[in-house]
Design goal:
The complex is a heterodimer. By secondary structure, chain A is of the alpha/beta class. Chain A contains 9 helices and 10 strands. Helix content of chain A is about 35%, strand content about 25%. In chain B, strands 1-4 form a two-stranded antiparallel sheet. In chain B, about 50% of the residues are buried. Classes of the chains: A alpha/beta, B mainly alpha.
Chain lengths: ~250, ~325
């Protein structure tokens, strides 16, 4: 039994009296896909914001590989191996696809490369080519992100989060607004990522959640309502009442 | 494999090369005609182009509008004048200006970078105003008169020397000096460090999630701009033999912003062309009417409305396309 790669203990935050996240604890197993589901306003994105350091937590702990990283800034968490994507595409829109990836991949280079010409950063540039290939964006490499289709932007959002070779990848609704075909492709991609990255996912498409996840965490009104395998969660009466209300 | 940003920088290099050739022709014509006035005016244009260059590093690459860049320009000019009056050495004067600009730039950057957007503009404006008032009211610095009687110097390279009194000699020296400042800025902005500044301009909030600290790069950009402004300012007393508090006033900062916007924000070379254009316009229009600021103002408004990307915003993309074609074939 190895230590969980990511562990959250008693995480809490309030916004103006509203307990947005209330004492949430869970552990994420290495190289598995763990999916957070829940109705709108359940606190899924807020949970991601707390874990990724975007919003400071009022209470609780975040541990990466058993080390306490509570209250660390996003750049320190990235160095500890945690990266994230955003629900609303958050990229450098006027820059090219390749430059977006290079910015993210440059972190793989030692500090001294920062003052050498960009072309000298071979490791970063090789990573860019690899990701362009894997995410089927090679033909769009010289295009500004603003000119991409919505689906392509969503794919790039995941690719940028992955570029720095994180141990843990938080994906906030990667298929948001995607067509059915694109959603299926993205599901396939996420599944393939899990061979070397631990994925924590927020997803609305229940079919995708069931086929993709090793573990499902159900959030409801800022609390963790249930946790288990997809089958166990689906059969849980509490989950059914949270989603569909009382009969 | 050269990407779009490197290609635009190369297009800027070509435009700088054209400017250098034109300046050399201008110098030859000046010498042939025994001219002093236009060579001195050209030198002043280049000095103010150096100030505009520093504004473009902040505005065009880091996304920070400084309305107080005259603080560092004036600082460089005063430090240089004070040193020259003690010891007439070019290297001592520019060395001192460089050192003081780094220290003051670090302090100013620490203060100004605590805020963003319009507040950043206001703080930079405020800091420059405070400095201008202090200089204006300090007798030791000549108060409202400024410092007069900066001696003519020999800029010594060991193998040769240039006199700051020689119109063509000092013009060519200033040209080389400003081109070196440009080359330094252009090199830096095409490294991963420079690209990080561009990323900060494009979407600052995303940068920390890529693993980068945002405070240090922004502070470094501010300090680099302070140093370039101060080094440009350090040449001013060598050219004119005096410094005055006007160098620190808002009109100097504002003119630098107008220069960059007219020349083309985020191109570096636009600051150089804009600086020359604006200085020439001021002089030419100023010889017909004392209300030359009205004309400059109208031209600026015209530039913003009809050339929102500035002069280089039109010229440079054409050169970029040419470079792209050549690389393919």
């Amino acid at each position: 039994m190895t230590a969980p790669v990511l562990e959250v203990r008693g995480l809490s935050v309030s916004f103006g009296g509203l307990r947005a996240i209330d004492n949430v604890s869970f552990a994420v197993a290495r190289n598995r896909v763990t999916t957070v589901i829940g109705p709108n306003g359940a606190g899924k994105s807020t949970l991601f914001n707390l874990i990724s350091g975007a919003v400071p937590a009022a209470g609780g702990k975040v541990l990466i590989d058993g080390t306490d990283h509570t209250g660390h800034t996003p750049n320190h968490l990235q160095a500890a191996g945690l990266a994230r994507s955003f629900q609303i595409t958050n990229l450098f829109f006027e820059l090219t696809v390749a430059e977006n990836l290079r910015l993210a991949a440059q972190i793989l280079e030692p500090m001294r490369m920062a003052l050498r010409p960009v072309t000298a950063s071979r490791v970063a540039l090789a990573r860019v080519d690899e990701l362009l290939e894997r995410f089927d964006l090679t033909e769009k490499r010289a295009m500004p992100v603003s000119k991409l289709s919505h689906g392509e932007q969503r794919r790039l959002e995941v690719a940028v989060a992955l570029a720095g070779k994180p141990k843990i990848l938080l994906l906030d609704e990667p298929t948001q607004g995607m067509s059915h075909g694109d959603t299926a492709d993205t599901a396939h991609l996420i599944k393939s990522l899990a061979s070397d990255v631990t994925v924590l996912l927020i997803e609305h498409d229940i079919g995708l959640v069931m086929s993709l996840s090793d573990t499902v965490i159900v959030m409801h009104q800022g609390r963790k309502l249930a946790e288990g395998t997809p089958e166990a969660v689906r059969g849980n009466p509490d989950v059914q009442s949270a989603y569909f209300g009382h009969a | 494999m050269v990407d779009a940003l490197t290609r635009s920088m190369r297009a800027s290099h070509i435009l700088v090369a054209i400017l250098v050739v034109a300046s050399l022709i201008f110098a030859v014509i000046g010498v042939a005609n025994g001219d002093t006035f236009y060579l001195r005016l050209g030198t002043e244009a280049l000095i103010f182009a150096g100030l505009a260059l520093s504004v473009d590093i902040l505005l065009g690459y880091t996304g920070l509008l400084s309305l107080g860049q005259a603080l560092y320009f004036g600082l460089g000019a005063y430090v240089s004048a004070l040193v020259l009056m003690v010891t007439p050495s070019f290297w001592a004067a520019t060395g001192a200006a460089l050192g003081v600009a780094m220290v003051v730039g670090a302090v100013g950057g620490f203060i100004a970078n605590r805020v963003r957007g319009v507040y950043f503009a206001l703080i930079t404006f405020g800091m420059a105003q405070v400095a201008a008032k202090v200089v204006y009211n300090t007798r030791a610095l000549g108060a409202s008169d400024g410092l007069i009687g900066v001696p003519i110097i020999q800029i010594n390279f060991g193998f040769a020397a240039i006199s700051s009194a020689s119109p063509a000699g000092f013009f060519l020296f200033t040209l080389a000096f400003i081109v070196i400042l440009y080359a330094f800025a252009a090199y830096l902005l095409d490294t991963p460090f420079g690209r990080l500044l561009i990323a900060l301009k494009a979407n600052e909030r995303r940068v920390p999630f890529l693993g980068y600290d945002t405070v240090t790069p922004r502070l470094l950009a501010y300090m680099i701009a302070a140093v370039i402004a101060a080094l440009s300012g350090a040449l001013y007393p060598m050219l004119r033999g005096f410094v005055s508090p006007e160098l620190l006033f808002f009109s100097t900062s504002g003119n630098a912003v107008i220069t960059v916007v007219t020349g083309g924000v985020g191109t570096l070379v636009g600051a150089l062309y804009g600086g020359i254009l604006l200085t020439l316009l001021k002089s030419v229009v100023g010889s017909y009417t004392e209300h030359h600021l009205v004309v400059i103002g109208v031209l600026f408004m015209g530039a913003v409305i009809f050339l929102p990307r500035g002069l280089m915003g039109i010229v440079r993309p054409a050169i970029e396309r040419m470079l792209a074609r050549r690389m393919k074939s």
